[in-house]
Structures are given as C-alpha cells and as structure tokens.
Write a structure and sequence with these properties.
Largest sheet: none
Oligomer: single chain
CATH architecture: Orthogonal Bundle
Number of strands: 0
Strand content: under 5%
Order of helices and strands: HHH
Length: 85
C-alpha cells in the first residue's frame, strides 16, 4: 500500500504529466486558485482511476475532498485502507 507521501508524489506527477498543471504546494486550493475547473476535475478522476488504479465514486465524496493534493491523497488512502479491512 502506498504511503501518503508516495500518493502525493504520484498525484503531483499526474497533475504535471496528464493535466499539464504545476501545483505550487500540496495544500494549494486547486479550485479557488483556478488550477482546476469542472472539466479538469472530471479528467482528474479519470486519471486517478487509470493511472493510480483507484476509482473514487462521486456519491462518496464532496468537492472539498478534491481541493488539494493533500486532501485527494487522504481520500485515496482512507478508502484503500477501508477496502483492505
């Protein structure tokens, strides 16, 4: 299982290589800063599923869960932990 640090690293890479977005820090608000719009949010979820192997069900998250790399990593880690239990 990936550590939170590894997840953040993989998310940073995904943003840079797939969405062409350089995120300044792990706690940057991706939505308020304008780095992510609604179309990019959909692409993000698609790439998380394809590249990281984890599907985030839309009915189980809120927009706040996708506001920063740190929050996204926490959501993935928590859901993976719950699935492994």
């Amino acid at each position: 299982m990936q550590t939170a640090q590894a997840l953040v690293h993989n998310l940073t890479r995904l943003f840079r290589e797939k969405l062409f977005i350089d995120v300044p820090s792990i706690d940057t608000d991706l939505i308020e800063s304008g780095l992510l719009d609604s179309l990019q949010l959909v692409k993000l979820l698609l790439h998380i599923e394809q590249d990281l192997g984890y599907r985030i069900p839309l009915d189980e998250i809120s927009l706040d869960d996708l506001r920063s790399l740190e929050r996204i990593a926490r959501v993935i880690a928590a859901r993976r932990l719950a699935a492994a239990a």
